[in-house]
Amino acid sequence: MYREEQDSVGKLNIPKDAYYGVNAQRAFENFQITGQRLDPLFIESLVQVKKAVALANMELGELDPKIGETIVKVADEMLAGNLHDQMIVDPIQGGAGTSSNMNINEVIANRAIEMLGGEKGDYTVVSPNDHVNKGQSTNDVYPTSGKLTMLKLADILLASLNQLADTFEAKAKEFAGIKKMGRTQLSDAVLITVGEEFHAHSTLTKRNIKRLEAVKDEVRALNMGGTAIGTGISAHKDLPQTFNKHINDVTGLGLTVAEDLIDATQNIDCFAVVADVQKTIGLSLSKVANDIRLLSSGPRTGLGELYIPSRQNGSSIMPGKINPVIPEVLSQAAYLAAGNSYTVALAVEGGQLELNAFEPVAFHKIFESFRVLSNAILTFDENCVKGIEVNKERCRELLERSTYLTTDLAIHIGYKEASEITKESLRDDKTVIEVAREHGVSEEIISAITAD
């Protein structure tokens, strides 16, 4: 069973029971791109925007209270999880997000019509454009909803990062007294403790937390009320501030009105900053994951200083082989975020004049990076870092066989003679102390360089 709806392109049959309308149906047919639906938090954000605008328009006398209150009721239903299946458009779409905006407008309008006793598609009762979209444009609704979504997803990523930082800190304390060989450029350097290494991992993770907290401020300023190009045409002059009051009541996200609504409509450079921070978080933690893979390599022919949890078979042909699958997946998440950052950069540059039409792909990739990084960091923490143990015997063995003491020795006898002792130690497979004694280095100096 179908109902007929019409837009400026022509007539189209819509499933009779559908809450979406002709605009969403046409977009569904035009944009079969990713095979995915809009992010659930983006749908939530769209609904919150529509609710807050309805409240603002009623306060400003711009919307019939009967219609406005019904829109708010529908929004509350959707915020409770209903009708999300009626959001049918693909995340990547032409039209700068118009398809997403009209999809939510139609769903809210048709449910409101139903509540008021009408038939779906009878937009004389509640109009997707004249009522649900009152005082708005896709060009302020869509970026505003995207920013709300980023703030929510940032908090999910922050939770994963905070958990990982706490685990690294706990491991730093657990491994505080375990000495090992430090390495630079994959070559023996000087002594360090395993605890110091893990404390450095914690410091890095906390720095990423600060980066992410700071970048949230990039997306708190909204262009809502700027409508098509930031001039506010078709909106009440007080809508930006009135909306901002209501959207903060609805979300609690600490949002502000953009200083310049035209700038905030034209330019989306803030999204490049978000994507770059995502990339930095991913790549910096991938470096940690790679270090842990290297230090746990083996079990017989690698460095073997760390034990990481065994999570699954590593080979379909080599019995008993275990691979570092959890660190590997974190690195792959980082690579995804890095690639997505480049996509966002291209989208940011691609805008022309008063609008950037490429926000859909930017949002899709930023949302993806937030979710993938959050999940990868969480599995890295739960399934790897929390279960790491130290092979103390291996650390001691490698430390004793290293030439790290020659750095301290050089302070007492000079760089040139210490270098000769180092070369002889490696050539003859002797310890530095053994060769130092052979070179006549005093026991007083040897005691000084071997003291804890």
TrEMBL record:
Q: Which UniProt keywords apply?
A: Lyase
Per its UniProt record, what PROSITE patterns does this chain match? FUMARATE_LYASES
Q: Does the keyword Iron apply?
A: no
| A single cellular component GO annotation | cytosol
**SUPFAM superfamilies (alphabetical):** L-aspartase-like
Q: What GO annotations for molecular function exist for this entry?
A: aspartate ammonia-lyase activity
Give the matching InterPro entries.
Aspartate_Ammonia-Lyase (IPR051546), Fumarase/histidase_N (IPR024083), Fumarate_lyase_CS (IPR020557), Fumarate_lyase_fam (IPR000362), Fumarate_lyase_N (IPR022761), L-Aspartase-like (IPR008948)
* Record keyword ATP-binding present: no
Q: Name one GO biological process term.
A: aspartate metabolic process
Domain Fumarate lyase N-terminal residues, every copy: 10-335
- Lineage: superkingdom: Bacteria
Q: What is this protein called?
A: Aspartate ammonia-lyase
